[in-house]
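Q: Joint fold for the lines below.
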Amino acid sequence: MAVVGVVISSVDGMVVAADTPPGASGAANDTILSLNARTVCYVWNQASAAVLQAFIAATNPMPASPLQVVQAMSGYLTATPPAQPPVGFDFAGVEPGPAGGNTVIELSHPGAAAGGLKQMVFPGDLYLGSHSIGRYLNARMFGAMKIPMELAQRHAAFVIGETRLALPTVRPHVAMARIDRVAGLSWATDADIAELTNEAFERSRKLWLKGIDLF
Amino acid sequence: MTLALALRGCNGLVLGTDSRVTSVVPQAIGPPQTITSDTSEKFLQVNRDIGVLTYGLAEPGYSGISRLVEQAKRNRYPRYQDIETAAQAVFLTEFNTWTQAQQQPAVAAAGVVGFILSGYDSVLKNQFRVTSFQSANGFQPQEIVQPTFLAAQFHIAQYLTTKLYRQEMTVAQLTQLAVFLMLETMSTEITVGGPIQLATVTVRNGFQRVTEEEIDKLLDTCQSKVRDFRRLLLEL
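A: Joint structure:
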């Protein structure tokens, strides 16, 4: 499973990215799973992935709206509480229609023995990162600014690359889902990822070079 | 949690921690409440050349470092290695005593507490040394050979050292870097905060606590560093 993941709301959609092994980018990755043409889910661990797969298999048809997907998953978890260990899901999607907003909702369940479902709704313009280095860099570089999706993709690749510098367990490749308000879900190709990670490396090197004079 | 650090430079060591204690208090209704206070002493001098600091659970942490200092003074251990050996036994005893006093000893025993012993070994190796002790492995001493060691809430500081640390830095430069790492971590991690506790170890002066007045000056100096680094990030 991914060590570091990011969910970034952009002006024109959303970007969800995570570290992954080489050869497992796009839909083949093990951490970001697609629910429909406008919704993906970042799963916290392997148990969460198994629960989500069971939910997908049991839900036909899958609702079109991300919010309705989360409601369906919430009902599923309440009806069939997962056994230990705890599970968690970050759903991210863009509601249908030209004026549809971004939906980011976290569902977590501590396991049947420990209690019920917890739901957390995040605001529309956000950076949500599963690691503090990403949160730090985002606060320093963008704060609450709304950024276009192209920049959000570059930022996601940079944050994952920079986290890898400090944490060797971060896997060497990146999987990235883009949910465009008009075109819906698409996965960044290996060529896209190569370009983004090369650029992230150049920015990282530039920061290192300029940081030499700081102390 | 805490940010605890030991940085090696060309002429000595810099040791540091924050002062925050974080407690999670169960509530009758609703989720548990997180309470912080910035009152913790996590850092003590053991002898002329050596200091010890702690992170993680505050109570067994403080009792561990204070008991080690008492024992080292009483026994006048001549070598770093002797203090290292005594430290393991002291930390284990204090942690076990604390867990047994808790309402749920088995749950308490799963808590995390760690210690960093660090200083100049003037008897055997003539080297600046850093040793880590953690509850997860029974406080077995682990000699740290890397030039920097960061523990507990370390991720942001670890990242920043990859950009800003150089082994040839002097102790004076490292004290500034240590304050910078603390400030930047505090900006994101709510469990790290409060007054910064710093010490330097050099061959000439041994272990020297950095005074509050000096830390205030370092905080002033670091404001421009924080601003400059932010500018570098914005220019990327």
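Q: Anything notable?
A: DSSP finds six helices and twelve strands in chain B. The mean pLDDT of chain B is 92.
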